[in-house]
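1st attempt posting a full record on here, be nice pls
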Amino acid sequence: QYGPRGVRTHDWKLVVTKRKDRPPQTYLYDRRGDPYEMTSAADAHPEKVKELTAELGEWLTRTKDPWLGQA
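the predicted structure (as tokens):
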């Protein structure tokens, strides 16, 4: 179960991508300031990454998504 998972709010979009041969990558997009999702804002907004990652984790747990079981 590799590939992307994400969560979206009105202003932000978080995408976490898992691949078999590399560590997970996290992208955060400012949907208002960067509507074409050209630049990840993850480094500039670590608090938002943490918040949305927790929200995504809760959703994946509730839905029993097998993606959680992959490193």
